[in-house]
Each structure stands twice: as structure tokens, then as C-alpha cells.
């Protein structure tokens, strides 16, 4: 099916492009579905499950458990305020540095 695009106006050309993109996506989804069926059939023929091969964490990253980091610095004015040395510096840390303290003075 050859379409002479030189005879199409702007709206007709945009419509043709939209239809072509829709059809392209449909073909892609069909191909992915067939491939998925082949992969599942192969896995099943070998006696395994999808989770055996690819793990149970589908469709996402495996996240590590968050652990707390021991503090490295303590506010001399308020000992309850600490900082691990990671991330943005707390305001009290910057204020202490401006007041003439050194990092080693604030270290625990």
C-alpha cells in the first residue's frame, strides 16, 4: 500500500503519522506477547518457574534495607544534635565553622 505523501495536506499527514505510530505500537505489543509466551514455554519445558529464573522481585530494583550510620559530629551547644557526615551539612555545623571551629573540634 503506497501512499503518495506529497499530495497530503498538513492535517492529513499528521493523521497518517498518528495512525502509523499506533500501528507500530500494536505490532510491538504483539511481538512482545509472542516472545513472552515462548520464554514461559521454554522455562516450563525445562521444569522451572519464572521466579526460579528471574527471582521474585518482578519489575523493580531490589532495595537494600536502610541502616543508620553512626554520627561523626556533635553540636557542642546542644549535644543531642549530631551529624553522620553524609548529606547536606546541618545549619549548626555550618554556623560552628563560621564561628571559627574546625571539623576536628566537632568530631565525636
The count of DSSP E runs of length 2 or more, i.e. the number of strands, is 2
Distance between the termini: 77 Å
How much of the polypeptide forms β-strand, as a percent range?
under 5%
Mean pLDDT: 89
Arrangement of strands in the largest sheet:
1-2
| Biggest pleated-sheet summary | 2 strands, antiparallel
Total individual domains: 2
N-to-C series of helices and strands: HHEEHH
Please compute the radius of gyration using only Cα atoms: 30 Å
- Unreliably modeled segments: none
Helix content: 40-55%
Shape: elongated
The helix/strand class is: mainly alpha
Tally of helical runs: 4
Keywords: Coiled coil, Cytoplasm, DNA-binding
Region (Disordered): 72-91
Organism: Dyella thiooxydans
Subcellular location: Cytoplasm, Nucleoid
Can you describe what's shown?
The chain folds into two domains: 8-54; 73-106. Helix content is 49%, strand content 4%. A two-stranded antiparallel sheet has the order 1-2. The protein starts with 9 loop residues before the first helix and ends with a helix. By secondary structure, it is mainly α.
Question: Which labels suit this protein?
Answer:
108 residues; mainly alpha; 2 domains; two-stranded antiparallel ribbon; 2 strands
Q: Which SSEs are present, and which pair or pack?
A:
Blueprint (H helix, E strand, L loop, with lengths): L9 H36 L4 H5 L18 E2 L7 E2 L7 H8 L4 H4 L2
Antiparallel strand pairs: 1-2
